[in-house]
Amino acid sequence: MKAKRFLTASVVPLMFLVLSLVAIPVSGMSARYIFSEVSARMARNCFFVLSLIIPIMAGMGINFGMVLGAMAGQIGLVFATSWELEGVKGILASAVVGTPIAILLGAFGGQVLNRARGREMITSMMLGLFVSGIYQFFLLYVCGTIIPFNEESGVLLSRGYGIRNSLMLPMAKGIDNILTVAIGGVKLPIATFLVTLCLCLLTYWFRNTKMGQEIRSVGQDADISEIAGIDVSKRRVQSIIISTVLACYGQILYLQNIGTLNTYNGADQAALFAAAALLVGGATVSKAGVVNGIFGTGLFHLLFVLMPIAGKNLTGNAVVGEYLRMFTSYGVVSVSLVVHAWKRQKDREMDRELLKRKIQDPAKDE
Amino acid sequence: MKVRIQTIIILVFIALLFVIGSFVGVNPAMSANDVVMRFVMNGILVLSMVPMVESGCGLNFGVPVGIIAGILGALISLEMELGGIGGLFAAIAMGIGFAVVLGLGYGLLLNKVKGDEMLIATYVGYSLVYLMNVFWIVLPFRNPSSVQGYGGSGLRSTISIDKYWQNALNNVFSISIGKYITIPVGTLVFFGLLCFAVWAFFKTKLGTAMSAVGANPDFARAGGINVDMIRVISVVMSTVLAAIGIIIYQQCFGFIQTFSAPLAFSFSSVSALLLGGASLNKASIKNVILGTFLFQAVLTMTPTVINSAIEIDASEVIRIIVTNGMIVFALTRKTKEAK
Q1: Which of B243, B250, B252 is nearest to B184 (CA)?
Q2: Nearest CA of chain B to the CA of A117: how many Å?
């Protein structure tokens, strides 16, 4: 029984491990190359992935609405770029602009999700798509018309309003460059790792604060928490706000490492990859920890690096690898959602069975 | 017939768009023609939502599953070099075949995840589309219209069906009114027949059972209905209708779109149905017809009018906001099963 439970909990990570073990020899990559790629991607992505944890504690599943935070971060970066701020100053300015937007969007998202209890995940996903429409409207038609922009900074399209499709960020590597250490010829952005580590510690600390404990009890059973005097709706909104703000910082951290901002479709798949990474790490939609986030990001990006080359070597067509990579990302999320939903349904059926037995034969039970 | 206040508001909005449009130089006849054309193109895809909503499987965000079946049918019809109305119906027949197989698998999967159908359907749709992207490259299609010309292997991302069955059904009894308006009577009648078939189905014993499962699965089970089987039937029906729907769409559009194109249809079809007044667990033919018309009219007219009036092409942004906003709104409305 215990072994079976372990298997259902870890079917997704195991699947991924096996796939990676097969893909490594097929891709023919050197260990050093793999290490440098995966470590770079971990530095860039871990923070963003970790921002998903708190809504899961609150029982709201995976917050696909984290793209709201990513968009807030991108708006911050656009403004900081137009002010031509470099290095850490640029990063801080982006965060200062992004934070209030993320708080507002998070509060809005939380309210919406409170009205859609029981289907938070699909609603948060649709919310992300909806807000991305508003985000595009804002950047394409409001920036440069209603909100004045510095024309010399080159962030505007040549028509005079609207933000360009891709921006070179002056604050690129702002955090990475604070401290970089080379290990065996592979440069590691230690400063970025330290920021991520801070978030890990904060998440641990947060679990045991009053707010953290209340959020966790809401996640365990909303009805009982309500009776115990916890303002469930408020706690749920708070958890979404925290997640959105963290996602905003996560996106800034990610983009400062990449160095260019893909203005209009940068955030689209961010939530998908983050969710996939977390789930690969053995998290479920009702239980996730820091370890899942970090382990999952490493494992997911390992396969992410291997897949295109392995696909190319297998079929002789580079595009196939790319599609296989997308398929695995979506497949991972699908499989772990299915496993989780299936398990819940089984539990429910078992409860019903027990109840039935109790009704039919009440004496036997006591 | 009861008309909702929202419907009236949208109708007034559309009428206003036509009036403003005629002042800023939009040809109303041409716009009306666009709306009619888009209505017949998308109608069946929206209709394909109905069985799953009625059986309680929720909005079918997994519509790409059916669309892929339809694309396979269309491609094989092209491979056999079938033209005209025969080619179209051959495509539909094969599409239905694939849809039954895929729909069975899809339905069985959704039975395992009751309560989370919509989210999982979305992801299953996406996964299947990307898996098929690999197959579009690998499968041995030979027709020069379908495969990439320059030495590469694999299908084109848009395949012209000009030489085969473009407008095959549209041209049956098509009526031209004035210079700009052409009514594709053949396709309209076909759509009408399918609507009637679905309506009639819900009057049969099986159809009533399906609605009962959607209304309350526990009562339905107590009433001796095999809930799981009914749900699978509804998913297969939805998938088959989506396969037919995409082939009719291609017939009007003139191209078969492969690769990531199927993804574009799920949210717009769901949104159209909701705009017609459907909810997460109740949808009727009236919702389908009204919703498709309203949705397509708003999406055709708003960008055209804005573009002519202030010379901004905001069609894509408007489409995103309208489509997804509608779905978010519907998801946040209270339903019976929600606490």
Answers
A1: B252
A2: 7
pLDDT (tens digit, 9 = 90+) per residue, A278-319? 888 888 888 888 888 999 999 888 888 888 888 788 777 777
Strand partners, A188: A181
**Mapping DSSP to helix (H, G, I), strand (E, B) and coil, where does residue B260 land?**
coil
Which of A117, A125, A317 has its CB closest to that of B338?
A117
Determine, for residues B327 and A126 on separate chains, whether the beta-carbon distance falls below 8 Å.
Answer: yes
Q: Taking CB atoms and an 8 Å limit, are B115 and A323 in contact across chains?
A: no
Q: How far is CA B34 from the centre of its chain?
A: 17
The token pair at A106 is: 């998070």
Residue position matching structure tokens 């202030």 = B310
Whether residue B336 has pLDDT greater than 50: no
pLDDT higher than threshold 60 for residue B1: no
Give the whole-angstrom CA distance, residue A64 versus residue A333.
Answer: 12
CA angle A196, A326, B231 (to 5 degrees): 110
Closest partner CB to B325 (pick from A130, A324, A326): A130
Question: What's this model's pTM, rounded to 2 decimal places?
Answer: 0.86
Q: What is the pLDDT, as a whole number, of residue A27?
A: 81
State ipTM.
Answer: 0.83
DSSP state of A142: I
| Nearest residue of chain B to residue A333 (CA atoms) | B123
pLDDT (0 to 100) of residue B278: 85
